[in-house]
Structures are given as structure tokens and as C-alpha cells.
Amino acid sequence: TLSALQYDKINPRVFKDALERDLKTAKKNLRRLKQTTEEPTFTNTIEALEFLDQDLTTSWQVFEIYLELMN
């Protein structure tokens, strides 16, 4: 079930941890993509590039909304 985030109850320090974690994951995904020995296909190249930082993008979007709402 989806519900609206209660931005006024978010501790801003959680963003640093989330962004660092998601950046680390994105870098790991990029390394994995660069090291693959599979024959290049749309799925394992273009699509993989599109989604390798999906968590980081989501975290950043939530952070930007938080900044807008708190200013």
C-alpha cells in the first residue's frame, strides 16, 4: 500500500545514509556492467545503463522534494 511520505517527520540525516548507500550500489552496478563478458545486447547494455542508478535517482528525488517543502 502506497501512502504519502510525512516529510515533516523525516530526520534529514537519513538522506546522507540513503544517498551514500545508493551511490555505492550504482557504482557497483556500473563496475559489474563494465566487467561483463556477455555479448552486448540492448538489455545488457542500454537497459542496464538506464537502470543501474534507479535507487539513487529515487532517493535524490525524495531529497529534492524534502528540500523544497522545508524551505
Q: What's the helix and strand layout?
A:
Layout: H1 13-35, H2 42-51, H3 54-70
Helix pairs in contact: 1-3
Could you list some keywords that capture this structure?
71 residues, mainly alpha, 3 helices
Total number of helices:
3
Distance between the termini: 29 Å
Class based on secondary structure composition and strand pairing? mainly alpha
Give the helix level as a range of percent.
Answer: over 70%
Strand composition percent: under 5%
Shape: elongated
| Average pLDDT metric | 90
SSE sequence, one letter per element: HHH
Biggest sheet statistics = none
Unreliably modeled segments: none
Secondary structure: number of strands:
0
Radius of gyration: 16 Å
Description of the structure:
Helix 1 (13-35) runs antiparallel to helix 3. The relative contact order is 0.17. The model has no long low-confidence stretch (mean pLDDT 90). The chain is mainly α. It is built from 3 helices and no strands.
